[in-house]
């Protein structure tokens, strides 16, 4: 039997590849970084963002306030007189200004079909309506479609009547005066013709010259000084002239206890929301600055 030689075996610890070690280190590093990236500590919001939000809300509040103020100034304040308590004379759906005995109205096609027989009853009311101004013409070629009927009915129902022309600053004044004369026949007992001037002029001096052309032409024809109708603001701004102050004035100033115009005036249009029998639509209300005999004195003579 053959005896095998003694063999000694040396055990060696295997080395780990370098690449594995690097990979492991890299993994640990990445793991650490990942842990840091998922930190639960909340980040602080920039202060400028908070300020911008606050400014936004402030601007919204200011805008809302400006809207409310503008709405009140333009849509509520001018008409607040309608809702004021009336401690004086109330008639025709409004509070009448105190101290005037002679009342009147002005009408046009905007009042549609007026029942003049029914309307006649206001002459015997507690605050009788004595006079009526009727729109006749406008510009150089427009005649109010209801003029002939309203003007004739006002006479037949024994109202003291007058006719007015709505002036257009962009139309030749001679043409406008002639057009009014062609369409309006006044007689003894009628009020003088009225020039209604409301439109703002582009050239104030030209407007004044043209108005005098119309007034002189009409006065020459009817042999009586015409009445000027306008608002107190328009009068003060555009017609503050000694020449125009010689004309009798019909001043428009709504929803106030007294007319603000400080000069002499004959008529005051104080409200545009009157309700009268025989008229379905709202109507303008007026007072005369004087007695009934004074009003008759103003009318055209034979």
Question: What are the salient characteristics of this protein?
Answer:
disordered N terminus; 19% strand; 8-stranded mixed β-barrel; alpha/beta; 302 residues; TIM Barrel; two-stranded antiparallel sheet; 11 strands
Structure description:
The protein is of the alpha/beta class and 302 residues long. The chain has a domain of 211 residues: TIM Barrel, CATH 3.20.20. The protein contains 8 helices and 11 strands. The strands form 2 sheets. It has an 8-stranded mixed beta barrel with strand order 3-4-6-7-8-9-10-11, surrounded by 4 helices. Strands 1-2 form a two-stranded antiparallel ribbon. Helix 5 packs parallel to helix 6. It is globular. The N terminus is likely disordered.
Averaged pLDDT: 85
CATH fold-level assignment of the domain at 88-298:
TIM Barrel
Measured between the Cα atoms of the first and last residue, the distance is: 178 Å
Rounded Rg? 43 Å
Name of the CATH homologous superfamily of the domain at 88-298:
Glycosidases
Number of strands: 11
Percent of sequence in beta strands: 15-25%
Question: Shape from CA axes?
Answer: globular
Helicity, as a percent range: 25-40%
Report the top-level CATH class of the domain at 88-298.
Alpha Beta
Unreliable stretches:
1-12, 19-38
Cross-sheet strand order for the largest sheet: 3-4-6-7-8-9-10-11
- Summarize the main sheet: 8 strands, mixed, barrel
* Class of secondary structure makeup: alpha/beta
| Count of DSSP H/I helices | 8
Order of helices and strands: HHEEEHEEHEHEHEHEEEH
Instruction: Return the CATH architecture of the domain at 88-298.
Output: Alpha-Beta Barrel
